[in-house]
Specification:
Two copies of one chain form a homodimer. Chain A is mostly helical. Chain A has two domains: 57 residues, Arc Repressor Mutant, subunit A (Orthogonal Bundle); 133 residues, no CATH class. Chain A has a two-stranded antiparallel ribbon. The first copy, chain A, is globular and about 50 Å long. The first copy, chain A, starts with 14 loop residues before the first helix and ends in an 8-residue tail after the last helix. At the A-B interface, helix 6, helix 7, helix 10 and helix 11 of A face helix 6, helix 7, helix 10 and helix 11 of B. Chain A binds a DNA duplex through helix 2 and helix 3.
Chain lengths: 214, 214
DNA sequence: TTGACATGTCACTGTGTGGTGACTACTGTC
DNA sequence: GACAGTAGTCACCACACAGTGACATGTCAA
């Protein structure tokens, strides 16, 4: 039996650094090519690491993604965009959320790019985002003044609308998809979304977001 | 050399019907699973046809998609949504386009689902949609009253914004992507989009779209 | 120094994919 | 009926992928 000797030089031998390199490779890959390009081989190539190490350290692409999700600054940014401290006035609130969206969009387009990919592909990570959305929606709902609380002013719908951007609602309309009791695709679902969109727009118009203002 | 005899029964022997079955399979697959699931093998499976026939009849997946695009009712619907006959009043126009979007969304969710997929994946078919958008944008631009024509009221940006939905802009922001002279991702690109969005919202608010009205 | 363990490398399997060549069987024309 | 052309079937190739087993080597403690 021939003795096998590695042709490539053995690398750094620093497990923690290697883990980090892998996770960072996930982020780069995700931002550059989206979830579709995410695979064991691709991540291994991007990180300059043998794919066996990915299996050994993370146990597979799903766990690797979870690790990325819990270490990267992606989810906190999402939470921030979705609205950490809701204002009391619904008009201000809607306008504020949209403003945050636009600001984040301008400052960190990669983040929302990944958010959109997530919404489109309905990746397992979607569950995490859904949880964040739901929590934020409840917070916002509770922050409403009593006459508006959850009756006509459809806060969950607005939150969903802004949460991952319109595309989330546009894309998943076919499947029976539920968000905070709104069945996306049903007539009353669309009516609620229409109403929410209108309210949002009114708030935006009345807000301080004007052209040319930075 | 052993004589080869087909184990499966030979099928209908109707080329036109087979072509149609293949094209219809593309539509079903696209609606059900999106562009990501679209492949020679998948289409062949869906159509119940040997993939060799796809190569022979269409010459590959790209040409097959073009054939689907030119025979299905997808693109006419897109053109309709993007606005066939622009109104003269910009507020009416923006509101009308958004109303058409919402109506189409409610009536035919599959169509916009495919549109969104197209926007996300930047599939070769995107070129076709871009052409439609550009044409519509020029039409709308020309239909503007003189004081508004192409100065502050950013019609191409609005058209793009509504064209494939917000997701188009959200997703492709990272790459240097040009639409009607607006470099998506550049500061002035975002400012124009912001302004366009605000104008759109004002138009929507002033339009006849009110909650509960059908 | 020696041994255990962790870290990294290589080789391999199985599966799915896009794509092509070669075969069989049907159909219409002369 | 013989023939050509077309429709359909099968077998195969090269490639990329996810996943696993086995080997080599560095590190650290006893």
């Amino acid at each position: 039996m021939p003795k096998r000797t590695p042709t490539n030089p053995v690398r750094s031998r620093d497990a923690e650094a290697t883990r980090l390199r892998i996770i960072e490779a996930v982020g780069r890959l995700l931002v550059r090519e989206g979830f579709g390009a995410l695979g064991i081989n691709a991540v291994a190539r991007e990180a300059g690491v043998d794919k066996v190490l990915i299996y050994r350290y993370f146990g597979g692409i799903d766990h690797l993604l979870e690790a990325w999700g819990s270490t990267s600054d992606f989810w906190p940014t999402v939470a921030e965009i979705l609205g950490e401290a809701p204002e009391s006035d619904p008009a201000e609130l809607a306008a504020g959320m949209l403003k945050r969206h636009l600001q984040a969009l301008r400052a960190r387009p990669h983040t929302l790019e990944v958010m959109a990919w997530e919404a489109v592909t309905r990746h397992p990570l979607t569950r995490i985002l859904d949880d964040i959305r739901e929590t934020r929606a409840e917070q916002l709902m509770m922050a409403m003044p009593p006459p508006l609380r959850g009756v006509k002013f459809d806060l969950p719908a607005i939150s969903a609308l802004l949460g991952a951007g319109m595309q989330h609602l546009l894309l998943r309309s076919r499947t029976v998809d539920r968000f905070n009791g709104v069945t996306i695709g049903s007539p009353e679902g669309w009516e609620r979304i229409e109403a929410a969109l209108q309210t949002l727009c009114r708030a935006l118009v009345e807000s301080s977001v004007t052209p040319g203002t930075r």
